[in-house]
Amino acid sequence: MVDGGQLLAQSIRIVLGLILAFLAAAAFVAFGLLRGLADPSGDPVVVGMTFGWSLVGASVIGGLAFVPALVAIAVAELMQLRGIVFHLAAGGAIAIFLWWSGEGLGGPQADIRPGTLIAAATGFMAGFVYWLIAGRQSGCWRVPPSSGASTRS
What is the CA 69 to chain-centroid distance, rounded? Predict the structure, then answer.
């Protein structure tokens, strides 16, 4: 059985969670890239650059990670996986997969590709933000059949 109100509310949380997760991942990467340019005084140009790169990065990250993220969300929703570990692992796995898929069709390398840890941390950040917004309530729209739903007389 399905609770329609909960399904609608969870759908809204999923969309909001995805958008904010992509923005958080992009801001994490943009801050890391532009941190060396910033001086301790907080130059407004660098802050503006970081914000601009975050918006561009969010669209790129969202475009690349959208389908794998939807698969992970579907698994979490259908299996009611609400734990933070699943969402962190899924975010990290998606980020590492996307990072390594940019290597091309060459053979496997013996070394870890530079930047893999940054990519994983970015995925963990996105997974955490998604978990905060929608992941903690994964599958809340499913009603157990033995819940004693109202019966007609």
Answer: 7
Cα(115)–Cα(53) distance, integer angstroms: 18
Q: Which two tokens stand for residue 83?
A: 């734990």
State the pTM of this model. 0.80
Give, in degrees to the nearest 5, the angle at Cα 150 between 149 and 152: 135
- For residue 61, is pLDDT > 80? yes
d(CA 2, CA 143): 6
Give the span between the Cα atoms of 146 and 93, in whole angstroms. 36
pLDDT higher than threshold 70 for residue 66: yes
Are the CB atoms for 119 and 98 separated by under 8 Å?
yes
Query: Which amino acid, 135?
Result: G
